[in-house]
Amino acid sequence: MENNNNYLLEAVNLSKYFPVKNFFGKLVQEVKAVDRVTLSIKKGETFGLVGESGCGKSTLGRTLIRMYEPTDGVLKYDGHDITKLKGKELLSYHKRMQIIFQDPYSALDPHQNVREIMAEPITVFENLTSAQLDERIVDLLEKVGMKGDDLEKYAYEFSGGQRQRIGIARALSVKPEFLLCDEPISALDVSIQAQVVNVLEDLQQELGLTYLFVAHDLSMVRHISDRIGVMYLGKIVESGESDEVYDNPQHPYTQALLTSIPIADPKRALALENCGIEGDLPSPLHIPSGCRFHTRCPYATEQCKQQEPDLVERTPGHFVACWKE
Q1: What is the C-alpha end-to-end distance of the chain, expressed in Å?
Q2: Inter-residue contact 217 to 208 (CB < 8 Å)
Q3: Percentage of the chain surpassing pLDDT 70?
Q4: Which of 231-240, 282-291, 311-320 is predicted with the least confidence, judged by mean pLDDT?
Q5: Buried b vs exposed e over 37-51: b needs ≥16 C-beta within 10 Å?
Q6: Half-sphere exposure of 272 (CA within 13 A, CB side)
Q7: Nearest CA among 54, 62, 12 for reference residue 31
């Protein structure tokens, strides 16, 4: 990983393992949800993270913002090592790193109205009068396209898109610099997805935010992201500039993901038609030897089964972990 002051968030060989215990509480195995991932996210950019369900995207994101305790590796925020921080020291960084959850309904307390939902995080860090608090909340709601007279309403009174806007406003309430957008549009109607993405883009321009955008939809990730990381079974298998990864995919898994997107260009669609993959994602309890993708890869060789490839820079800024040239 390059040492650069422009990076806001940096991870080196970051891992997150979950213990699997038997009936007697004895450790019998570990789920390697995130395994020795190295990545850097620049200030002010959107880094998109894509992959199948169960590949470790959300776990990586939550480990990066210290919602989950890293098992191993180094995690830096704005040049400061936050891997082992605890208590008040960690809280000060949690203020700077917030999350927008996937499900806009379950993320909001149904027993609280909008004022209470929004006030809760603010009062942890600031001592405001009731009038100042209401003014802050109304300003945040208006930033995300809601109205000030929504303060007394409860979550069930809003649509899914409106609830997600409230979730975004709540994430912004403590004035963060970095937002983990953990599949923020996957639970919404297609027509609403674009609206929420537009809100996120506008807020990024206005507030200078940095995003980690986690999603299944590679076409949406391309639209919003400056750079993309493709994740498979706990590993980043390809990363690079958004257009470069989309237009020139090098890893067979990335190529397979792209075949699921309708393509208007017949020549490009024909070139990718044989890149599909079969079978399900292997269990993280039983990770294949060598390249983790070899059990589903149409190009797998004996080397793929025996040796795990490193993430190598093939062209400037474009990294691929694959033995196939």
Answers
A1: 23
A2: no
A3: 92
A4: 282-291
A5: bbbbbbbebbbbbbb
A6: 24
A7: 54
